[in-house]
Design goal:
The chain is α/β, with parallel strands linked by helices. The chain has two domains: about 230 residues, 3-Layer(aba) Sandwich (D-Maltodextrin-Binding Protein, domain 2); about 90 residues, 3-Layer(aba) Sandwich (D-Maltodextrin-Binding Protein, domain 2), CATH 3.40.190. The chain is about 30% helix and about 20% strand. The strands form three sheets. It has a five-stranded mixed beta sheet, with helices on both faces. A five-stranded mixed beta sheet has the order 7-6-8-5-9, with helices on both faces. A three-stranded antiparallel beta sheet has the order 11-12-13. Helix 9 packs parallel to helix 11. The longest helix has 18 residues. The radius of gyration is 20 Å and the shape is globular.
């Protein structure tokens, strides 16, 4: 039996999907082949702010999964809308890579020190707002393209800098010198520069009625701490009714039984921001009490009711943080979800 893993065709998508394929093959004892699929986001060159939260990187892949042309999908979690389609399930969220953004330049000049009029490339409304807030003297150019093409524009002098996800560089080998090829990467701290909900994490999706053996193998790839953290982040996004390209940064971490969630909503020009940092105590569930993918199973109603389910606790925390942000005026800054 060969499992068919659907993925976007970009070098980054193929690299991260191959990692999942290798891990799944080791667990399931089956061959896993990649099935490249072209998404709307790969052919639609509109700005990310125009594409909004319509799932342009996921819809075509999900259609292939439903039609039986593949058995599972790998997504960058930050690209997924928060509403889960009927009949499909996120069966695994492996341990997250570095969730930070990095600021890439030719000479290592920090973002705050860039000269007046320097040009920084990014298509993300969140990053645009954060760049303006860190250094209002620079100009931001709305760009699209793969990681290598963005780096080339800095290397060749078309741009002074670009903002990229650290996880993408790592998955493409950017922790060495080959990909950066002499460029300098400045990591941006998550406390002051929270990134997109789910950034650095992968979502492995399949049909809810998939072979139980496949679901069991995928459950072995799931990382509970990562799932708890990204659940909190994405519930902020969902409760704010914002698209996944909204000017919102949200990052959560689980440590020593605590969940810490930091969320900041920005005005488009970075002039205003509304933020909240909250830490709550988690009550852990033993692995035997969790359903596939770390989600609570049908027998866990009592745990969910008394707060022992860490996924439910994370969801409630995200909802509460979003409510408090709205009370402080976040609705005036965040555009509603695109349809």
């Amino acid at each position: 039996m060969t499992l068919r893993l659907g993925t976007r065709r970009s070098a980054l998508a193929l690299a991260q999907s191959q990692r999942v394929a290798d891990a799944l093959a080791a667990v399931a004892g089956e061959d896993v082949e990649l099935v490249p699929i072209v998404s709307e986001g790969d052919v639609n060159r509109a700005s990310l702010s125009q594409l909004g939260g319509r799932g342009v990187f996921a819809t075509t892949l999900r259609e292939a999964l439903v039609a039986g042309r593949c058995d599972l999908l790998v997504h960058s979690l930050k690209d997924l809308p928060t509403a889960q389609p009927d009949g499909l399930v996120i069966a695994a969220i492996p341990a997250r890579e570095d969730a930070r953004d990095v600021f890439v330049t030719r000479d290592g000049t920090p973002l705050a020190d860039l000269r007046d009029g320097a040009e920084v490339g990014t298509g993300s409304p969140r990053r645009i707002a954060q760049v303006h807030r860190r250094n209002p003297r620079v100009r931001v150019r709305d760009i699209r393209g793969n990681v290598d093409s963005r780096l080339s524009r800095v290397r060749e002098g078309d741009l002074d800098a670009v903002v990229l996800a650290a996880a993408g560089l790592a998955r493409l080998g950017g922790d060495g010198d080959e990909l950066l090829d002499g460029l300098h990467a400045e990591p941006l701290g998550l406390a002051d520069w929270p990134t997109a909900p789910g950034q650095g994490a992968l979502a492995v999706e399949t049909r809810a009625d998939a072979d139980p053996a496949l679901l069991a193998a995928l459950a072995a790839l799931d990382d509970l701490d990562t799932r708890v953290a990204v659940t909190a982040e994405r519930r902020v996004l969902s409760a704010l009714d914002a698209g996944c390209a909204a000017p919102l940064g949200a990052h959560a971490e689980v440590a020593a039984g605590d969940l810490r969630l930091n969320a900041i909503v920005y005005a488009a020009d970075g002039a205003r921001r509304i933020g909240l940092d909250r830490t709550v105590r988690l009550a852990g569930l033993p692995a035997s009490d969790r359903g596939y993918g770390g989600e609570s199973g049908s027998s866990n109603g009592a745990h969910a009711a008394d707060g022992a389910d860490p996924i439910a606790r994370a969801a409630r925390t995200g909802d509460d943080v979003a409510r408090r942000l709205l009370e402080r005026g976040a609705a005036d800054l965040v555009p509603r979800e695109s349809t």
